[in-house]
Design goal:
The structure is a homodimer of 333-residue chains. The first copy, chain A, has 333 residues and is α/β, with parallel strands linked by helices. Chain A is 37% helix and 21% strand. In chain A, 49% of the residues are buried. At the A-B interface, β10, β11, α5 and α9 of A face β10, β11, α5 and α9 of B.
């Protein structure tokens, strides 16, 4: 298709195939890709470290120079931040995103922003069975039923994907920040042990990247063991190696994730399936499948049958946020 | 407009003004109305007791005979039941709703069903300031921001209303059945006192028509008082009269409602406002406004500012479900 090549003059490329720029801008890295008008698959995915650049535009210009002489028409940028109007401020890097400036500097006709979990939700209908593993032995969900993606990472992303006529509409807010539903006195005592300065123990507080460490040290505090400095990655590694305290913490983490995921699924009516995203869970898919995740998901009282009919999946493929940005452009964002 | 009258022959009426039938079918009564094509306001609202009829069609035929010689074109029926395909079974009365049968028996071109809380959500954009009272001193919300309706009744209805292009899309599942987020040991003990046979204490269990009775008797059990047979209506009446045990129970009820409403608002990103529906809360609007409802709604840790910016309203007007059925027809359901 000549995107890389220099064999055609620039204007021929533009006329023959319209390409759009897509990006997945996280807290550390930004991924860029190109997508042909109307197509689902991002091409020429490249990753850049944010701290090598003074601005998003600069990184984008570097990417476009690298992939060859091509002028994208539009752009869809998935950002790991809430999207409440513009400019979008990425405080970590002092970057500011503003569509008119991006259009001017990158020669684009239109720039749209989407939250990264909204983008991941938009990618769900394009997932192949090789892009995911099913957690629990269940069906395939209701066709065109509402889907839901939940992703533990720096935060806890939560986004529904609702069918609206021929389009898919991402629906989200700040769902990670709901109060966690402790059920027993022991659980409340654990919540109080992990709460720290926070007045409210939210789902995100327990389930984001730091949540597993909090649960591990909360369990230690309750049972009189000494708190240790151990990362979430180490806890999950040692759990897979059979360390009992780590197994206990990781099982609790998976069970709490299942409880919360089931509640989100009830609220959205996610009969089309619940998808778990983010890098953390990909470290222990078999442990997750054997954990109390699914029994907690199903434990919904009179709505138990409703919950049991909802399939749950772990997204194993990477870069799916970029696919979602492509989907958003394709359905005429 | 001649809907009542007999002065015009039938066919003239049909040609001059197209009317549609709307209905709000609850567990005890059914309300019917007519709405002119493209209009927002239901006319000729009439209520019928379900147990006077053997079927929904029979009640509808009685209504249509009463309002005069008019053949509605379509119908939108709001039903107090989950809508998962047809037929819709209303087990209380053995009624079964099936669109092809209704079309045939009532001479309609099309019949659509909508859940009653989806219909109430669809009515939100048409609410006038006289149709609601604001709980807490807040702004008017984000224009076209997602709205949310929550209604304690026989169950606990929860439905978001999301802007999709030029349309409003109701988004709901079984949100009333999420686990209630107890935060303290005392609250967990109260949950265990009210749980009864249920393995899970859901939001609905605490907040539906029976929830106030459960909380009242749960508080009695914890403090060693004897359980008494008292209805939710009596508890709220006696709370307004200053009975301390009733005041305590009703304050707890309102606070728990606020906590749950705030969590739903975070999940949907309900920046357009949260609306409380159903008949129960209309019995004590001033008590609700003075209760911990809003402080619990706002108590969302790092998302406190986000929650505080969301206005909350009590819907005081009646028959708004019928308005929502009209809205659904108007936007071409």
């Amino acid at each position: 298709m000549g995107v890389h090549g220099h064999c055609h003059p620039r204007q021929v490329l533009v006329v023959a195939d319209t390409y759009h720029l897509v990006a997945d801008l996280g807290g550390t890295n930004v991924r860029f890709a190109l997508v042909q008008e109307g197509k689902a698959v991002p091409e020429h995915v490249e990753k850049f470290a944010n701290n090598n650049y003074d601005s998003f535009e600069e990184a984008a210009q570097d990417y476009l120079a690298k992939v060859g002489p091509l002028q994208p028409d539009k752009a869809c940028i998935a950002v790991a931040a809430p999207i409440h109007g513009e400019p979008i401020n990425l405080t970590n890097y002092g970057w500011q995103l503003w569509a008119p400036a991006l259009c001017r500097q990158l020669g684009l006709r239109e720039v749209v922003f989407v939250n990264d979990y909204q983008a991941l939700a938009l990618a769900l209908p394009d997932l192949e069975s090789s892009d995911r593993v099913q957690i629990g032995n269940h069906g395939c969900g209701v066709k065109h039923g509402t889907r839901l993606v939940i992703g533990p990472g720096t935060g806890l992303g939560v986004c529904g994907l609702v069918r609206a006529g021929e389009h898919n509409l991402p629906v989200s807010g700040e769902g990670g920040h709901i109060s966690f539903a402790a059920r027993t006195v022991q659980e409340v005592e654990l919540m109080q042990a992990v709460a720290g300065e926070s007045s409210v123990v939210s789902a995100e507080w327990l389930l984001n990247g730091k949540g597993l460490e909090r649960l591990y040290n909360g369990l230690a505090a309750i049972s009189g063991r000494q708190a240790v400095s151990i990362s979430a990655r180490e806890i999950s590694q040692q759990a897979l190696a059979g360390n009992l305290a780590c197994v206990e913490a990781l099982n609790l983490y998976c069970g709490f994730l299942g409880r919360v995921a089931g509640d989100y699924a009830l609220i959205f009516g996610a009969t089309g399936g619940v998808y778990l995203g983010g890098g953390i869970l990909r470290r222990f898919p078999e442990f997750l499948a054997a954990s109390p995740f699914r029994s907690e998901f199903d434990d919904k009282g009179v709505m138990g049958d409703y919950a049991r009919a909802i399939p749950t999946f772990l997204i194993t493929a990477r870069h799916k946020t970029l696919w979602g940005a492509c989907a958003w452009l394709r359905q005429g964002a």
